[in-house]
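User: Hi! I'm working on a homework problem where we have to compare a predicted structure to a textbook description. Could you give me the structure for the chain below?
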Amino acid sequence: MSDTAPIEHPTWLTSGDFTQADEPLRLWQAWFDEAVKGEPRDPTAMSLATVDMEGMPDVRTVLLKGVDDRGFVFYTNTESNKGHELAANPKAALLFYWKSLNRQIRIRGPVERVSEAEADAYFATRPKQAQIGAWASKQSSPLESRLAFEKAIALYATKYALGNVPRPPRWSGYRVLPLAIEFWQDRPFRLHDRIEFKRAALGAAWVKTRLYP
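Assistant: Happy to help. Predicted structure tokens:
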């Protein structure tokens, strides 16, 4: 799930009682910065939920690899289950859960593919072994044995032993464009704080609502 490429994000900050915030992306940034300092395992880990052709939901953990005022970016094999599901129904939900901070953030919205230039730029930052793995893996497809996968890795490692490894055509990124962002903060006796930001369309003004826990 992990590699060593750094997360890219703006330097927005907020302070004080989070329930007084009026802009969700700034608040997300403040919470993420605290998670980087206080969540020991991996603060970029997020659950990604999609829906298949039969309407059955799917969820898995991916890593956040970029965020800006447009949305939240992750990368994957476009021929994986999630890739096929997003091609058929380009909508998704994300969940950040930072257990050490007793906080979670839920995000929902449409999904778009990143540009070829964005995908190329990020792929170039990955460790070479991870780049080789992207070529060798037919993600989500049946695998007859671990040995078959290791042979594929060896084949592409030999092929790209010298020089840069190009990005596979079936490997790219997706950006979740938020229409709803909910912040949850644990409180004693399950009297939690929940603040939801919603907007009717991309570019529209955010509307904030406090929710019952």
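For your comparison, note the following. The first helix runs from residue 24 to 38. The helical segments are 24-38, 81-88, 116-125, 128-136, 146-159. Good luck with the assignment!
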